[in-house]
Amino acid sequence: MYWEASGNPKGKPALYLHGGPGSGLQTGHRQLFDPERYLLVSFDQRGCGRSRPLVTDSDYDLASNTTQALIADIEQLRAHLSIERWLLTGVSWGTTLALAYAQAHPDRVSEIVLAAVTNTSRSEVKWITETIGCIFPEAWSEFEQMAKRKTGQSVIDAYYQLVRDPDRRVRELAAEAWCKWEDVHVSLNPQAKPNARFADPNFRMILTTLVTHYWANAAFLEGKEILHNMRCIAHLPGVLIHGRLDVSSPLQTAWQLHQRWNRSRLIVVETEGHGGAVMWNEFTKAIATFDDPR
After folding, report:
1. What is the residue range of 173's domain?
2. What gap in Å lies between CA 206 and CA 174, rounded to an integer?
């Protein structure tokens, strides 16, 4: 596992969980935390970024990459750093992982701050891969046709099959189509530009393999769905930040969590979708409300 720690070694411990699954760490998240007040810990999740092996390695065991395995990785990292409890933060898929970890280990969490909230439930996966086509019918039609799905097969299952095909060209075309679709639905801003990272075929393949793996399996949380287990963390203070115009992950998910989370605060960013400058500003302010010393 590649991990890094920055900021004040004696500061309040905080964990940042990246999105994707499979996006890996970038550097911008460090700017969200006051380096004098926080000990910020982050890591590249299994199979991506600078962690090894990569999910695209020929002998990679995809079955070993699950939400439960990631939770175990987080616990191992916490113990390695001798951290008793930490502030959990995450964005997009990172919010699903943060909530799943918190529900598994509520005694190891002090507070939670999440942006662009997701639960990766079956209904959310169906929305983002099928139902959302009512908003982007032209792009979705192309995306769906590239899936080459069989009768009765879902789009997510079809893509999951394609990215594991023995033919490398089949895998590459599936990853290219998947990332093209991501660029379509991630923002309603007409000025939005394609994600520059999608130009890298290796990144496209890593991201698509892990996203379809987790989405096809509903984040490996069936029977332990996050919404149904909010009682485990209802006592923890938390902030949910979500864009009103987020079509990728509609506000309903954050709203439903808020309704079952006694000590949560929901901040709706009226002008943004799945991310944006205002959302990051609210994220930073929310973190600052919990910046008391360890």
Report:
1. 124-218
2. 12
Predicted confidence at residue 230, as pLDDT, reads 97
Helix axes 93-104, 67-80, angle to 10 degrees: 70
Nearest to 143 by CA among 158, 123, 161: 158
User: Is 229 found in the same domain as 110?
Assistant: yes
CA distance 138 to 13: 46
Question: Can you give the pLDDT at residue 17?
Answer: 98
pTM passes above 0.90: yes
Are residues 106 and 24 located together in one domain of the fold?
yes
- Residues 127-176 have pLDDT tens digits of 999 999 999 999 999 999 999 999 999 999 999 999 999 999 999 999 99
Residues identified as active-site: 92, 246, 274
Q: Where are the alpha helices (DSSP H) in the chain?
A: 67-80, 93-104, 122-129, 137-147, 155-162, 168-185, 201-216, 252-259, 277-288
- Is 137 contained in some domain? yes
For residues 176 and 182, is the Cβ–Cβ distance under 8 A?
no
Count of domains for the chain: 2
